[in-house]
Amino acid sequence: MVFDFLRRDSGAAPVPEVKASATGPVMAYASAGRVAWSPRDSGSLTRAGFAGNPVGFRAVKLIAEAAAALPLVLQDREQRYTEHPLLSLVSAPNPAQGRAELFEALYGHLLLSGDGYVEAVSGEAGLPAELHVLRSDRMRLVPGPDGWPIAYDYMVDGRRHRFDAGGAVSPVCHIRAFHPQNDHYGLSPIQSAAQAVDVHNAASRWSKGLLDNAARPSGAIVWTGADGQGAMSNDQFERLRDEMESLHQGARNAGRPMLLEGGLDWKPMGFSPSDMEFQKTKEAAAREIAVAFGVPPMLLGIPGEATFANYQEAHRAFYRLTVLPLATRVTAAVGRWLSAHLGEEVALSPDLDQVPALAAERDAQWARVAGADFLTAAEKRRMLGLPALPEGGEGE
Fold this sequence. Notes:
Layout: H1 24-27, H2 42-51, H3 54-68, E1 72-75, E2 80-81, H4 85-91, H5 99-113, E3 115-121, E4 130-134, E5 139-143, E6 149-156, E7 159-164, E8 172-176, H6 189-192, H7 194-212, E9 219-223, H8 234-247, E10 264-268, H9 278-293, H10 311-342, E11 347-350, H11 359-370, H12 377-383
Antiparallel strand pairs: 1-2, 1-11, 3-4, 3-8, 5-6, 6-7, 9-10
Helix pairs in contact: 3-5, 3-9, 3-10, 7-9
């Protein structure tokens, strides 16, 4: 035909079909090849909610330190490893950090920004030689035409280093919290608690101002002139203000008696009880911050919180509802990423048998499973999360 020259060569090799999400081209339409910026300024939130707020600081430290201190186990479908190159790498990820320091930094960035990044330094035999946690506020994701990241830009003082993520295994492990309105970045607890952080910080500044003024406004100096007029001349006003600043303000002048000349009268003032309700507002804001991070307020020493019967119950709920879900998800992602580098299918997870806070629950579970005579040894091991016994093992 006349238009045969427009057709592709029929002898060319067929293009293999690529399976991908149908929504990928849609979400990548306006952002392909460009940096996707985080919707919130994590630096400002970190300064206000972590570095400048004791409740946020303690909540993040409590979660990150508890999760990083959990012992880890590595296993596949057949056995649990006590020695493995991956375990050695996780135990000593780089010369400056151990396992606890590395994971504490990773959990901290994930809690403060909603995103955590781990860099793998190329090594021999496919396994990375070192692991490093990268700052989340410096990392920018570059999406490709299909919506998945093709690169990560690490930016410091105007200089940029690009990690190519288009290969079989990405050199960067990106862990993000769930965000319903962002395709590339996670939502951190501190973003949800931003208003409570502002209220708590404002209440702290208000308290400091009250302490500087003896928890009440000192009073007012009323001027009554000789002819009954209430207005002072500019010179008289400036002189009175200078004397007040130099002789009656600051901690050095606390308690010093005030000498007033003729026509000046001192009127003491104070706050009504309703004006002192700011303390309750501050405590309510502290509870909101604790709730956003998933930390029982009792563990942070916030007064007026009696949700749990005792400290032990609150501690157990903290591990069961906050620490373990976070640690399980993060270690699984890191383990899956390292497994791809190594070429083996292994799983990294917290060792629940060595969590002191869950000892009572674990003892009860072991007792129930051990007393179930209708279960075989293999079924009991599966229920307890243990690998199967070797062929011909006891109970098979």
